[in-house]
Amino acid sequence: MMSELHKWIRASEAEYSIPVIAGIVHYQFVTIHPFFDGNGRTARTLTTWLLYMGGYDLGKFYALEEFYAEDLEGYYKALVTHPHHNYYFGRNEADITPWLEYFLKGMSIVFEQVANEVAQYSKDKKDDKVVDLMRPLDHRARRVLGLFVNQNMIKSSEVANILSLSARQARQLLTQWVTQGWIEAVDPSKKGRKYKLAGEYKDLV
Questions:
Q1: pTM for the structure as a whole
Q2: What is the block-wise mean pLDDT of the chain (205 residues), using blocks of 10 residues?
Q3: Are 35 and 75 contained in the same domain?
């Protein structure tokens, strides 16, 4: 029976989507019950492997095993598609639509949770990056950084105006910031040069 199941998997790849194949294989494996113990765990592992090979990789964020562990009653209830447990006494011909609906809904829930976790992880990483970039900037640099919210480049006169500095002081400060690395001169050869954000600071605004 296991050999036939393997052949069916290979033959069905062009007809059914991977999640549907995985759901059917899960049910059939549990129904065939090839081992004395551990059939459920093996079925869930096989399901995860089929999904992984089909491009449905959950990585290290979450596993279907965890979903089933949190809903054991619903899991076992969905697998009861026929009153008899024996493969040859009806379970091989049972309507497994309820099980597939449960299985696919579970997949949907799990992948949605993973998507949320990935989004939160990305946000946390971005927040950490912002903190690291802002740390070396003093209060004057942070005020000038705000100028880039509405424009790509700034002039020394704008810096002088927002910080109440002389033109000479503003130019000195801009030179210092260029050395620090968070801004750069757009055209150093021009007398009335402009400045833009440098490196990773471009992503802050």
A1: 0.51
A2: 66 80 86 66 80 76 76 86 56 79 90 82 81 90 91 93 93 94 85 87 83
A3: yes
